[in-house]
Amino acid sequence: MTQVSEAAEVTPTEVEKEPKSRGNLLRAMEIDFRVFGMVLALAVILIGFGIKTNGRFLEPVNMVNLAVQSVSISIIATGMTLIIVSRNIDLSVGSVVGVVSMVYAQLMHTWLPGWIGFDHPLMWVIALAVGIALGAAIGGFQGFIIAYIGVPSFIVTLGGLLAFRGATWVVTRGVTISPVDPTFKLLGGGPEGSIGGTASWIVGVFVCIAIVLFLVMNRRQRRRFGFPVRPMWAETVVGVVSCGVVLGLIWLFNAYKWPEALAQRHAEETGTTIPPGGLPAGVPWPVMLLIGVTIVMTFVATRRRFGRYVYSIGGNPEATELAGINTKWTIMKTFILIGVLCAISAAVATARLDGATLDLGEGYELYVIAAAVIGGTSFAGGIGTIPGAVLGALVMSSLAYGLSFIGLSSPIQDIVAGIVLIIAVGFDTINRRRKV
Amino acid sequence: MSERVPLVELRDIRVAFGGVHAVDGVTVDLFAGEVVGLVGGNGAGKTTLIKALSGAHPADSGQVLIDGEPVTITNTREAKALGVETIYQTLALADNIDAPSNVFLGRELTTRLGNLDDSAMEDATRKLMGRLNPKFLNFVVPVNSLSGGQRQSVAIARAVHFNARILIMDEPTAALGPAETKQVRELIKQLREEGLGIFLISHDIHDVFDLADRISVMLQGRLVGTVNKADVTTDEVLAMIILGKLPQEVTQKDLAELH
Prior knowledge:
The complex is a heterodimer of chains A (about 425) and B (about 260).
Chain A: H1 2-9, H2 24-28, H3 33-52, H4 60-85, H5 93-116, H6 123-149, H7 153-172, H8 197-224, H9 232-255, H10 260-270, H11 285-303, H12 305-315, H13 317-322, H14 327-353, H15 364-374, H16 386-405, H17 410-435
Helix pairs in contact in A: 3-16, 4-9, 4-11, 4-12, 4-14, 4-15, 4-16, 5-6, 5-7, 5-14, 6-7, 6-14, 8-9, 11-12, 12-14, 15-16, 16-17
Chain B: E1 8-17, E2 20-30, E3 35-39, H1 46-54, E4 61-66, E5 69-71, H2 76-81, E6 84-87, H3 99-103, H4 118-132, H5 148-161, E7 166-170, H6 178-193, E8 197-201, H7 205-211, E9 214-219, E10 222-228, H8 234-243, H9 252-258
Parallel strand pairs in B: 3-8, 3-9, 6-7, 7-8
Antiparallel strand pairs in B: 1-2, 1-4, 4-5, 9-10
Helix pairs in contact in B: 4-5
């Protein structure tokens, strides 16, 4: 099988004959230089803190916590990328998270129990649906003012930043609401909020199969049209490395075990036995959610008309309009989308806290924008990728987590985060200038 | 002219910006297989007039007829549906995306599920470029990394791919080098042979004399007149552009002043 396809690969359309130059290896594999740089930065940060703490930082529990902590920012950053790509900005995301979170908590704590009773099995579904609808409505409202009335997004969402933070206060009259529905709480992660060891391996294998299928289909499609394809060795390297990373992450999540007392109780409740070496927690639900959001958003950005138009608006708004595209509606949709993502992010944050506090989401806008920008999104518009933004959020989170882990105070963390942001964008700017 | 019905007629078109009459009662027409040069100084109203046809900026009053039938064009989409394609002076390309995405912008090919069919679009663009500009090979890089001529090829490809009958070209050679200019000229001739009607807006009087069958001259929002290229000299057209006088009205003194 392999023999046959190998033989068929040798055609004049192979890109192997390309002139040799720096970064040739990466180019053959069609790996984005920026993504590679970010993965490298992430590795340096993780290993750096690992060395500093004699390896304690790299223990599974920390890696899992770090991943879960980055989820709320990452989810919104995928949407912020499209907003910035289309030359807008959304400063209101933190306040939208705040108000939606309060609504979740109020629904599950005060409003819904009166109607359907506590512990209703559909409680979390109703709460999520209402929250997501609210997020979409808020996003749509702001998007309408921006796209159709023409008020700059900076102003509209700055107003939103203030107004929705105030609304959060109004919803609760200033108190913290806790707890939330137990099923809803699974979205927050932790041992109970993870999918378990076996399920994690199954997910991992499925993802690997999907990666291989994707590579094969893509190659077949390009060959069918007679386009240049990457050399077989590069294809293999990409496939093997991707699957290796996926399975490595699954291993990491499974290396995180339930705390003993909790595991004991869980085993008794479910009538299972604890395997030797502890009960693996597996992939946390919020991480599953983030993976899903990243895949869907990447798909929307690259394979749907809407995504294409967002990028073309960012490259040239007038040309997009002249091409007969409804640019206003497209812009409004980007804001509806980020509203929905804020609601999803709020669900994770609320579940993690097991309730809603007044300051939930405060400062999110800055972290989300920083994540998108570190991930390669250009403020000039038209450039940026969804996986880049998620990686950017991971870089930011691991830095913040590492700094607090070695005991630096939060003001120092902010100073470092600020400096890193400027350095990251500085590198990017220089890199881009050299290319042009 | 003969009994033939013009492909396009713009009748008594008026466009005002505030109190300024950018286009003031202009009437021009265009036949299939013909190039009409639209010339005039800066601010003469050429581009504004043509926007009434391309849909980029509808006229305040006046009539647009295609094949003798009155049509309403209020946006570019309606214009394209009627077979009117425009190549803008700025090219109107989204610089950050690749050539196939630009060629199909707003008219993407999709799979049955509505997903973008990038392979099919790249394939169609490769075939199209094989005809228009065989040297064009950069199909997967953003168009801002292409040369002026290649970008022009993308803009032209976008205009001709969708069976345009009427082509508007606004300063198609303004940003090009000599070789590329020659290439665009050849292409215009080829498209005319294929039976398209082409409005050619240009500052370059040589372009217009080389390519156009008739020349319409505008000055300060008004039509000075339309002449057959074969009947006039470049000096006479220059006199129309600068002085606003038809060839029969121009004196020897006027011509002397032009030089």
